[in-house]
Amino acid sequence: MKKPDYVYVTYIATTPEKVWQALVDTDVTRQYWADPTAGCARVNVSDWKPGSRWEHQRIDDTHAVDIVGKVVESAPPRRLVITWARPAEEADDSKHSRVAFDIEPYGDALVRLTVTHDGLDPQMLEGISGGWPKVLSNLKTLLETGRALPQSPPAT
Amino acid sequence: MDIDKVFKSLADPGRRRLLDLLHRENGQTLTALCEHMDMSRQAVAQHLQLLEEANLVAVVWQGREKLHYLNPVPLHEIYERWIGKFERNRLGALRDLKKKLEGDDDEKA
């Protein structure tokens, strides 16, 4: 494995199974994987078997696919590794970066979720660096409170 | 994690400097970080330990090298708590101010 570009860690008061489900189940993903620039949530669609394809889809009418990749490792509920590429560069493996999700129990009531992203080109590095912290803190809020985040800040 | 630890970690200029160094170049070893710090290696290691306990620094082992990464997730939670939810109002206030100063005519904008 190359030296990671980014390592994100969050501690969530939940179970590894629920974190896993939140990563692969589109009914859960759509509740927290918000992207303010797209104005709609995204879901990750795949059968999550090693070697399978996955797609990062918008959930609006366009179902536009912004990111694609392959499932490298799938060991529920502990570890998921996927590759990550622009749709136009899908055929070129050298353009795929790699994301690993490690889910470990921490103490009695916490789960430590580590997201490691390596092999990013500078543009993608710029694009995703603001994205993961938001996705992970939304995920934490959803799993700990059961509340989905609003798509845009509530009017006051 | 404990938000007190996050603020306590941030209250020290040396630890903020370490976060700045990791922001500039992520994934550095203790040795590399020490080159830019005006204190003993042991003191830098202790600061990194506190940052790790506050979850502001994440550690990855690459062979025998311990690499330190800036973990912005707790900072994002602070942002969400005190800034994110006010953003809409603030942007609205700026828009109103602009309208007032420029005249209430969107065509001119």
Reconstruct the topology from this structure.
The complex is a heterodimer of chains A (156) and B (109).
Chain A lengths: L5 E7 L3 H9 L1 H7 L1 E2 L4 E6 L7 E6 L6 E11 L3 E6 L12 E10 L3 E9 L3 H8 L1 H15 L11
Antiparallel strand pairs in A: 1-8, 2-3, 3-4, 4-5, 5-6, 6-7, 7-8
Helix pairs in contact in A: 1-2
Chain B lengths: L2 H8 L2 H12 L5 H5 L6 H13 L3 E6 L2 E6 L2 H10 L4 H16 L7
Antiparallel strand pairs in B: 1-2
Which second-level CATH architecture of chain A applies?
2-Layer Sandwich
Which CATH class of the largest domain in chain B?
Answer: Mainly Alpha
Number of extended strands of chain B: 2
User: What is the H level of CATH, i.e. the homologous superfamily of the largest domain in chain B?
Assistant: Winged helix-like DNA-binding domain superfamily/Winged helix DNA-binding domain
Give the radius of gyration of chain A: 15 Å
Strand pairing plus helix content of chain B: what structural class? mainly alpha
Query: Could you give me the name of the CATH homologous superfamily of chain A?
Result: START domain
Secondary-structure element series of chain B: HHHHEEHH
Please state roughly what percent of the residues of chain B sit in beta strands, choosing from under 5%, 5-15%, 15-25%, 25-35%, 35-45% or over 45%: 5-15%
Tally the structural domains of chain B. Answer: 2
Number of strands of chain A: 8
- At the third CATH level, what is the topology name of chain A? Alpha-D-Glucose-1,6-Bisphosphate, Chain A, domain 4
Order of secondary-structure elements of chain A: EHHEEEEEEEHH
**CATH architecture annotation name of the largest domain in chain B:** Orthogonal Bundle
In the CATH hierarchy, what is the class of chain A? Alpha Beta
Oligomer: heterodimer
Low-pLDDT windows of residues of chain B: none
**Taking strands numbered 1, 2, ... along the chain, how are they ordered across the largest sheet of chain A?**
1-8-7-6-5-4-3-2
